[in-house]
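Notebook entry, cofactor series.
This is the third protein in the set we're modelling with a bound small molecule. For this one the ligand is zinc ion. I'm keeping the input format identical across the series so the outputs can be compared line by line later. Sequence and SMILES below, as received.
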Amino acid sequence: MTDATLPPPEPGEKVAAQSAEAVLAQAETAVEEAGFEADMAPLDVPRRLLLVHAHPDDETIGTGATMARYAAEGVAVTLVTCTLGEEGEILEPGLEHLAADQQDGLGQHRIGELAAAMEALRVTDHRFLAGPGRWRDSGMMGTAQNERPDCFWQADVDEAVRELVAVWRQVRPQVVVTYDANGGYGHPDHVQAHRITVAAFDAAADPAYAPELGEPWVADKLYFGAVPRSVLQAGIDLLRESGDTSGFFGVEQAEDLPFGVPDEQVTTAVDASDHLEAKVAAMRAHKTQIAVDGPFFALSNNIGQRAFGIEHYTLARGARGPAAGPHGWEDDLFAGLDA
Ligand SMILES: [Zn+2]
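Returned structure with ligand:
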């Protein structure tokens, strides 16, 4: 058994103080819980998916159904989250004291929310880049939080890439998912997650790069999450038809939103509508972030399967697999791969 089979330490766990037997026993329990045979290393799982997200809740909103589907299909799904989301707005009444300008306890609280969300999605391998709290949420673009030396936006990119490559070479994913160059909607932590993931794609494959981090690993495909404009527009229209007068984020046209992608740029639609329930449960787990009376839940009630059970992607690296859906889109992130 190699180090690669050990689970990541839990937040606050004192790994060094444990005996080797205790660590081994814990690893075996984790492996069993993950549904593997006790004597089977995770790398024996033929298909492996790595997702890199900026804050707890991004994984669920953008890729939750995809994660639940692949986990259910026996794919080894690994989530790397870059920050604790300390600067998020607090939408849960009674927890306002956790805000960054008061007790500054939101990040710790969101570790628990993320763990509950992963339980809902049945994803057992989730880690914070370089450990929980290494880099802080940078807040929205243009705010003073962007200047804090401990925030992810100010991170030493080389160090962050190195940390990601360490995970990458351990889990050896065929498919990696993150955001596009705009970070989906311009949040600095999303932009930074994009940067380090694109850099790690090449670095992890380069035998000359940090050989002490493990054997080089060439991932087959890199995807950026995408919301097709047509899907956004359908959501806006349906909300309006259902009598909602607030509009989706206050707009009536998909073009006015900062995160829609023209349909012709989309390459892949993963239909995970069988796992919509798990995604909605994971959304509920992010209680401080996603208001149950907000647009996400309004949409999930109205046109749940279309807007939330099917998640879209743009292939950025690797060869496009055979088209299986409408518009010539792939219907599987592993399309065209032997895995
Ligand atoms: Zn985010």
